[in-house]
Amino acid sequence: MSKQYDRQFKENAVQYYLAHKELGWNKCAENLGISRNAIRNWVKAAAGNSGEVPVRGSGNYAGDEEKENARLRKELRGTKDALGILKKPSAFWETDTGCLPGNRGGRESAGGRGGTPPECQRSA
Fold it and tell me: Which pLDDT tens digit goes with each residue over 22-55?
C-alpha cells in the first residue's frame, strides 16, 4: 500500500522541485524522501490544477450523495465477501450424496438419536 501524504506536503514538494529544477527529479525526490514518480505526478497534477495538488481521502467527495454512495459500495463489498465465505463451507462439507464425510461409518450418534441414515451407510 502506498504512503499517503497530505496536501501541504505535496504542495511544498512541488514548490521545492520548481525552485530547484537543476537538481532533477531523482535528487529532489531523494532529498524529500519520496519516489521520483510521486514528485513527477504531483508536479504534473499541480500544473493542471492551478498550482494545487489534489489529494485522495475521505473528505474528497463532490457532495453528500457521492460520499453515501461510496460508503454503501464499501458495505456491499463487505457483505458479498461475508456471503462468499458462508457459501464455501457447505460446498466443502457436502459430498455428492449430500452426506457429511464423517457420517458414513455406521456408528450410532451421541445421545441415542438414531444411526446413520440409510443413504449414507456403506455397502458391504
Answer: 989 999 999 999 999 988 988 888 887 777 776 6
Dist. CA 44–CA 54, nearest whole Å: 11
Alpha-carbon 11 to chain mean position: 28
Q: Where are the domains of the chain?
A: 7-47, 64-96
DSSP string, 60-99: --SSHHHHHHHHHHHHHHHHHHHHHHHHHHHHHH--TTS-
C-alpha cell of residue 45:
497534477
Q: What is the pLDDT of residues 57-85, one digit of tens each?
A: 555 667 778 888 888 999 999 999 888 88
Q: Which pairs count as long-range contacts for 34-39, CB under 8 Å and 24+ apart, including other chains? A: 34/5, 38/5, 38/13, 39/13, 39/14
pTM score, whole prediction: 0.44
